[in-house]
Amino acid sequence: MTRPIVVGVDGSPQSLQAVDWAVEEARLRRLPLRIVHVALRWEYSAEAPPEPGLEASRPESAALHVLELAQDRAADRAPDIETSTALGIGHVPTTLLEEASDALLLVVAARGTGAFSGIMLGSVSRQVAEHAATPVVVVPHHPDPEPRPAEVVVGVDGSEACMDAIGFAMEEAALRGVGLRAIHVWDHTAYPPAMRPASYSELSVEQEGARVLSESLAPWKSKYPTVPVVEQVIQGRTPTEALAGATVRAALLVVGARGHGGFPGLRLGSVSHAVLQQAQGPVVIVRPRP
Fold this sequence. Notes:
alpha/beta, Rossmann fold, 2 domains, 19% strand
């Protein structure tokens, strides 16, 4: 069965930018696109007179209009992509996850209105990214979006959990025909520089970071030999600062849903959630496969 790219919309300009991203991803992967709008149950239980010339009540007609606008936008950008729509009714995160249960990728806007209002800091994005079995892409809003630089960035901490993130990032780089930048962040977070142990060696840290990157990337380099890879060890910054900073120049940032070492507690609680708050470009949260 072909797995679609699913994108959540709410009618806002922000969510239409998420549609643009999802359309491009569907085109690259040659997959169908499913556009989902979720309405709250109370909107449909409330009595509302029908609009002139329409049999549907106002809330339902408005919801269908949201889907129509998004579908028209997708058709304008990629008329050759198979596109469908789905209207969900109920608890937004739960319904969105149900609609995306068979998806290869779930795309949401960083911020929106209505059901997706405050998605970056609110419950929807956190719950979706926390519980989705599929990778989740959060697309930030830019009033005048410019073409993103040609580079995919991935955070690497040497854990088993980050391996799926590396694989996803490599695949994205190969699909886009661009290079991959793998970042490992390490620092004595418990001590300021003046209080570090006498045995602290920046050279040793650099070498250990290089080893982590080399060993983590090796199997994926063999699978994607045509993707140029830059391995970067960053010291003296927090993982959040380093990764969020990378979104300024990256076409896409990929991080794992869990991790250790350079990315402690990477479960939408500390690093990954903080990166979503500060990101200036699209971020993919990849959950390890069972």
